[in-house]
Design goal:
Structural class: alpha/beta
Shape: globular
Strand order of the largest sheet: 1-2-5-6-7-8-9-10
Number of domains: 1
Helix content: 40-55%
CATH architecture: Alpha-Beta Barrel
CATH topology: TIM Barrel
CATH superfamily: EAL domain
Largest sheet: 8 strands, mixed, barrel
Strand content: 15-25%
Order of helices and strands: EEEEHHEHHEHHEHEHHEHEH
Radius of gyration: 17 Å
CATH class: Alpha Beta
Number of strands: 10
């Protein structure tokens, strides 16, 4: 498992991490999830992978909490098949109870396309997950087909702006308008907003000007192992933000 920091644009401090699975081949090279997750998504295997990621992330969270970093949140990506599995909410509940983590520090990331397949069922599942204390995040926002009318019904706390919008943020007026609209929408609905794929200072400064809450991307740090995650936290490193 690898973890990428989520950093505040208010004070530059690390507020959490997104858990990202990496498959290590026998020769030691890492295979990115795009190379195997799409295939796994077509089979029940994705449920086992998802359960593994959830377990490992909660164990890492517990370990890091014990080191004094109890304020940090950890987010886990949930696949469509995993989310639609009737036993998934109870699996989340069991892991929370077994590991003893603070449930509200666990964030479950789902995509627009996952929830739009059956909106009523998705809302019911989200409400059940929220009743166990976990928070919900709508990932890759703006790339799917969810209706704005539905959005206010979703019991979510966070929306994540997809990197396709942040990539050309400083040069493309259309991307600027879309990003501004997403941030304004999130604020109006009382949601926190995270911008993914931030790789340059100019992107960071533009997002700060738009009053985005958090950023995630290579500009601050690439995904890292649990060991390097702990080293980063102990270093006290912060994101340098201009006034």
């Amino acid at each position: 498992m690898y973890y990428q920091p989520v950093v505040s644009l208010r004070d530059g401090e690390i507020k959490g991490f997104e858990a990202l699975i990496r498959w290590k081949k026998s020769d030691g090279t890492l295979v990115l999830p795009g190379s195997f997750i799409d295939v796994a998504e077509q089979s029940p295997l994705i449920n086992s992978i998802g359960q593994f990621v959830l377990n490992e992330t909660c164990k890492t969270m517990k370990k890091i909490n014990k080191l004094g970093y109890e304020h940090l949140s950890f987010s886990v990506n949930v696949s469509s098949r995993q989310f639609q599995n009737p036993v998934f909410p109870n699996q989340v509940k069991d892991i929370i109870e077994k590991t003893g983590i603070r449930a509200h520090k666990l964030i479950l990331e789902i995509t627009e396309n996952t929830v739009i397949q059956d909106v009523k069922a998705a809302i019911d599942t989200m409400k059940e997950l929220k009743s166990y204390g976990a928070r919900l995040s709508l990932d890759d926002f703006g790339t799917g087909y969810s209706s704005m009318a539905y959005l206010k019904e979703f019991p979510i706390s966070i929306i994540k702006i997809d990197k396709t919008f942040t990539r050309e943020l400083t040069d493309n007026k259309d991307e600027q308008h879309i990003t501004d609209a997403i941030i304004s929408l999130g604020k109006n609905f009382g949601m926190l907003v995270i911008a993914e794929g931030v790789e340059h200072k100019s992107q960071l400064e533009y997002l700060k000007k738009l009053d985005c809450d958090f950023i995630q991307g290579f500009y601050f740090a690439k995904p890292m192992s649990e060991e390097d995650t702990i080293k980063l936290l102990k270093s006290g490193r912060k994101l340098q933000i201009s006034k």
